[in-house]
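Researcher: Here's the sequence for the chain we discussed earlier.
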Amino acid sequence: MLASVKCKTLTGAALLTSYLAAAQSSDAAAAPTAAKGMDMQTMLFWFLVGLLAFVLLLYVLVGVLIIVQMRPQLRKVYEMPTVQASWSGKVLGLFVGDPVLLKGRVADVVIADHDYDGIHEFDNDLPPWWKYGFYVTILFAGAYLFYFHVSKTGELSHAEYETEMKQAALLVSAGSDDPNKLTDFQALTAAADISGGKSIFTQNCAPCHGANAEGKVGPNLTDEYWLHGGEVNHVYKTVKFGVQGKGMVAWKGKLSSKQILQVSSYILSLQGSKPANAKEPQGEKDPSATKIAMR
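Model: Thanks. This is the structure I predict for it:
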């Protein structure tokens, strides 16, 4: 009976598919534009996908019904000792209600001389699901090693980060407010500019960096060590955009571009001044750091 139902279903589906294919050819010949034909093809595609899903579901339901009806016979087969010990027998056990393939068998055999304060140690196997998961992790580790380190097909985290940063830079405007684009200013050396930079530093920067830039909350700005670069354009960038998460505020919008360049130049003019109570060096030496000769 079930076979008859399947045959009738598949036959009807085949006839319906043939009818739709013929209708599509007729419509495509009569359609004034190719767009309508494309719409019909899309509809036919999704119809066939739905039909395939329906047939697969029908097969699953028929399979479940067969297993339910044959369960007594399957249990008799499963109870045979030679069947239970085999892999196929353990799979069969899932259909008759014995999940030994997933949970394993617990023998509860006490290991000799492993009895302490009434606590017994049993020699039970690890659950199969745990062992299968462990084997999967080994396979995954091998595939990961080959993909990233042997064939070098995939990008490691550092390379992936650099790629994402390059992609993000394309989304940021390349104007003067682009933090990813370094300026090409020259350090100011005129006495008026250095004096103006000193006034700005005293009013805005001294509370964190000290009156002589010796460092307080912020780092010492008079030594040759830098956290974010000691070239004038790096200092300019740090002053303008700040350092998120480290307490260095962004001064753009509060100081003009010239004022930021003046205070950056003033900071660089303090290199090697060795003020009293200078804070310990932070960061690294920067060979490109700007050195200003006072005029």
